[in-house]
Amino acid sequence: MANPSDDFKVSDWIREEMRKVSYREYCTGFYFGSPLDDAEIYYEGGYRREWDVVAVCEKWENGTLYAVQRNKFLDGDTLEIVEAGKEPFSVTVKDLKNEAGENVESAPHAMMRLSFSCEREVKPGSIIRKQKAEPKRVII
Q: What's the rounded Cα separation, in Å, for the pair 110 and 72?
């Protein structure tokens, strides 16, 4: 903003981040005047969310990421690490352990302390998220 440029372009990864944000269905609201018949959107309701925060990083040390769980995930899942001001990166969960250092297949308990292998350093407070699976549709 301090040094505007005609050739400025938002990075693709930042545009992608905007798509990943949880949101309610968009509408024009009061932009075109007072809404009468279409003041609210009811057909789906709630928020649209394609990603879940599954943990928050407490620390990273010697190739191990230590975190506190927020939503269930499994050993072998592919997650994204979101650090402030940086492009998110993917990591596959390997060697998932509980707080006692025991190997576990999943992190099913809210606020569970856990760790898993992560070669890239991660700053404390970074968000760890997982893309939701597409809902299975049953054809009758």
A: 8
Q: How far apart are CA 140 and CA 135, in angstroms?
A: 16
Dump pLDDT digits (tens) for 52-93. Answer: 999 999 999 999 999 999 999 999 999 999 999 899 999 999
Q: Report the first-to-last Cα separation within the chain, whole angstroms.
A: 55
Alpha-carbon dihedral of residues 92, 93, 94, 100, nearest 10 degrees? 160
pTM above 0.85, yes or no: no
CB 56 within 8 A of CB 31: no
Residues contacting 95, CB < 8 A, separation 6+: 75, 103, 116, 117
